[in-house]
Amino acid sequence: MLVRDYGEGFPKDMLANFEANGSQVGVGLAGISERVMEFGGKWGLKSSSAGTEITVRIPLSATPDVAREQRHRQHDPIPGD
């Protein structure tokens, strides 16, 4: 999914803070990030004085339970190691 507007964009310092530590942009982008992660997806943000573009990619087979299980497997040690 791609969402684009042609507004003023985010101020550069605010965007830099968000990219560095996910803060200082309000709850909207944080909410997008949390929901995309719940489904095992990825998202991106581009912003300039010409507007802002948000892209979201979520696997077609994703459900919250499947994505949660995939995240747990990524962090669990491999048996026998």
Q: How many H/I helices?
A: 3
Main sheet: strands, sense, barrel: 3 strands, antiparallel
Segments where pLDDT lies below 50 for 5+ residues? Answer: 75-81
Please tell me the overall pLDDT: 79
Q: Write out the strand line-up for the largest beta sheet, numbering strands in chain order.
A: 1-3-2
Based on CA atoms alone, the radius of gyration comes out at 16 Å
Number of domains: 1
- Note the run of SSEs as H and E: EHHEEH
Strand content is 15-25%
Shape: globular
Class by alpha and beta content:
alpha+beta
Helical residues, percent:
40-55%
- Number of DSSP E strands: 3
* Spatial separation of the terminal alpha carbons: 39 Å
Describe this entry's structure for a reader.
The protein has 81 residues and is α+β, with helices and mostly antiparallel strands. The protein is 42% helix and 22% strand. It contains three helices and three strands; from the N terminus they run βααββα. It has helices spanning 12-21, 27-38, 64-75, and strands spanning 2-5, 42-48, 51-57. A three-stranded antiparallel beta sheet has the order 1-3-2, covered by helices on one side. The protein is globular and about 40 Å long. Mean pLDDT is 79; it is low at 75-81.
Please specify the SSE layout and strand pairing.
Elements: E1 2-5, H1 12-21, H2 27-38, E2 42-48, E3 51-57, H3 64-75
Antiparallel strand pairs: 1-3, 2-3
Keywords for this structure?
3 strands; 3-stranded antiparallel beta sheet; 42% helix
Quick description:
By secondary structure, the chain is of the alpha+beta class. The protein has helices at 12-21, 27-38, 64-75, and strands at 2-5, 42-48, 51-57.
